[in-house]
Specification:
The protein is an alpha+beta fold. It has six helices and three strands. It is globular and about 50 Å long.
Length: 150
Amino acid sequence: MAPLRGHELAAWRAFLEAHAAVTKVLERELHAEAGLPLTWYDVLVQLSEAEAGRLRMGELAQAVLLSRSALTRLVDRMQAAGLVERGPVVSDARGSFAVLTSEGAATLRRATPIHLRGVAEHFSRLLSRQESGVLRRALQRVAGAATEDR
């Protein structure tokens, strides 16, 4: 493999810096206005989009990009807050589901406008329609190739 050229390394660094900066501001706003950490919001979104509002813990860990142990601790805290419950997997005595509660759904409904406003303000409004399309296609290609490498 050839070494990275300057423009390739600059693109990588810009991606990392943009992700870190936008994630930080979205986290701050969501926490200040909804009292919700961004990772909790992500879990609630994933569960709300899943069939019957539930996902196996391994599936949820993969969807929110956390290790299983980190997700277990996160779900424990969210369960204590009443946002999710755990349910057994009937076909697998060792498996469990994370299940969205009505309180979790209500919290998500309150937090979503805050999050979407932040995404629009700190990301979308800064890109033209064409730039958004190019960026989406490029990042989908990168994500797809990384997924194939697993």
